TrEMBL record:
<dbReference type="InterPro" id="IPR003010">
    <property type="entry name" value="C-N_Hydrolase"/>
</dbReference>
<dbReference type="InterPro" id="IPR044149">
    <property type="entry name" value="Nitrilases_CHs"/>
</dbReference>
<feature type="domain" description="CN hydrolase">
    <location>
        <begin position="2"/>
        <end position="273"/>
    </location>
</feature>
<protein>
    <submittedName>
        <fullName>Carbon-nitrogen hydrolase family protein</fullName>
    </submittedName>
</protein>
<dbReference type="Pfam" id="PF00795">
    <property type="entry name" value="CN_hydrolase"/>
</dbReference>
<dbReference type="GO" id="GO:0016787">
    <property type="term" value="F:hydrolase activity"/>
</dbReference>
<comment type="similarity">
    <text>Belongs to the carbon-nitrogen hydrolase superfamily. Nitrilase family.</text>
</comment>
<dbReference type="InterPro" id="IPR036526">
    <property type="entry name" value="C-N_Hydrolase_sf"/>
</dbReference>
<keyword id="KW-0378">Hydrolase</keyword>
Length: 316
């Protein structure tokens, strides 16, 4: 049996250092409760900019929106930066493998990224969201196939799929094909309908699904953000703008924990890993149920370069 935790908590938007401190305290509780894996929500480090247009409409961008975007960029993390070093230290101290949603800055572009961190090793897995949803495309770049890999851990093999990537059948099949056992989904989707998708994926892939979403109030955001908040309806400062709905589901579709709404909490479950062997008796989406004589899927996992500089001396 493996005990795991899904973290439903509010980040500290635009302040990754403080969010890491909060995550470290959560990992201490997770370790004290005997869990060896913790899954955090999408954009826990950096913040999910719910309800913000960054002053952008078709054909025009306002200066105030650009200033807010600057704040967002300054709150992002870089691989090898101090925030992730501090998080890696917390992972090592607690012994808890961690899946963490971050806003990653690479060059001058931001990516919505899910990281896997291992005790004593730091970052061992990176997945950049392939397709930002809707207006997310304004502020996040597109990942490529080079970050679709899985990570082996003592609990099982971890695959990471972020938010509405879960509605991409080819991406799900890519995760199943790599032997994913712990299907981790940092998300910002807090709708009640999300639970149906998580149950479907657990049964489809015969995987344990660990879905983590923030429960965050409007007043958890900086005042400048609150002024730009553009979602319809009346929101008091202490109103939840993301409601959570985190959950854990077994390969047979049994809901082991959650969904829970409108509170910060940690959800725990003991996973019977033998179910992974039993569940494929009658269905294996990548194996005996796949019909490769009819269907095939090509996945390009090469890293893409926009510019490749070449010199006569180096031949590169």
């Amino acid at each position: 049996m493996s005990k795991v935790a899904v973290i439903q908590a509010a980040s500290i938007p635009f302040d990754s250092a403080s969010s890491v401190e909060k995550a470290a305290a959560i990992l201490q509780r997770v370790a004290a409760n005997g869990a060896t894996l913790a899954v955090f929500p999408e954009a826990f480090l950096g913040g999910y900019p719910k309800g913000i247009s960054f002053g952008s409409v078709i054909g025009n961008r306002r200066p105030e929106g650009r200033a807010l975007y600057q704040m967002y960029v300054e709150g992002a993390v870089t691989l090898g930066g101090p925030e992730l070093e501090a998080l890696a230290d917390a992972v090592t101290q607690t012994g808890v493998y961690t899946v963490m949603g971050v806003i990653e800055k690479m060059g001058r572009t931001l990516y919505c990224t899910a990281l896997t961190l291992a005790p004593g090793q730091g970052v061992v897995g990176i997945h950049r969201k392939l397709m930002p949803t809707g207006q997310e495309r304004l502020v996040w770049g597109f990942g490529d196939g080079s970050t679709l890999g899985t990570v082996d851990t003592p609990m099982g093999r971890i695959g990471k799929v972020i938010c509405w990537e879960n509605y991409m059948p080819a991406l799900r099949q890519t995760m199943y094909a790599q032997g994913t056992e712990l299907y981790c989904t940092p998300t910002a989707d807090d709708r009640p309908t999300w639970a149906s998708s998580m149950i479907h994926i657990a049964v489809e892939g015969r995987v344990f699904v660990l879905s983590a979403c923030q429960a965050i109030r409007l007043n958890n955001y900086p005042e400048s953000f609150q002024k730009e908040f553009a979602l319809p309806g009346e929101f008091a400062p202490d109103s939840y703008v993301m409601h959570g709905g985190s959950m854990i589901v077994s390969p047979t579709g049994e809901v082991l924990a959650g969904p829970v709404f409108d509170e910060e909490t940690e959800l725990y479950a003991e996973l019977d890993m033998d179910l992974l062997k039993q569940a494929n008796l009658d269905f294996d989406v990548y194996g005996h149920y796949s019909r490769p004589d009819i269907f095939s899927l090509h996945v390009d996992t090469r890293a893409k370069q926009v510019v490749k500089l070449q010199t006569e001396d180096s031949g590169e």
